[in-house]
Amino acid sequence: MVPSDSVSLGIPECLVALxxxxxxxxxxxxxxxxxxxxxxxxxxxxxxxTLRVRIVRDRSIWLLQIGGDGLGDSWFGAGAWRExxxxxxxxxxxxxxxxxCEYVEENWRRMVDALQTExxxxxGACLHARQRERSRVDRAxxxxxxxxxxxxxxxxx
Length: 157
Fold this sequence. Notes:
The protein is of the alpha+beta class. It has one domain. Helix content is 49%, strand content 21%. The chain has a 5-stranded antiparallel β-sheet. Helix 3 crosses helix 4 (100-114). The longest helix is centred in the last third of the chain and has 37 residues, at 120-156. The radius of gyration is 17 Å and the shape is globular.
């Protein structure tokens, strides 16, 4: 996976390092697509028996998402996983936050453990709740930024 043209694709170094580490730990590449005509969008999914790690570039924004057995088709950011596993709030942002790659690299085994049959329902509920809250906060931040930019534009006229 780590394509030879990872530099030309602009894949952040932390993602390249994460992919190499996950591959060493037995993850395989399930899918990898790159569409230069669609804003250069890129997606790769690595998986083991229980966990799936998805790397996405959507219009130049890089995302790191984790899904797995018992979670259906849902994907969750590393921040939501960290909040559920650690019980701490993480900053909300539109892309990969500082430390996300390293967190997944160091804690993917804990994520697998959290998806065991007796824990998967509680894990899924926590992840869905955290992701909803993170989306709400992110929408509010984006709305504030848009309104602030409009205010500045009016003031400059």
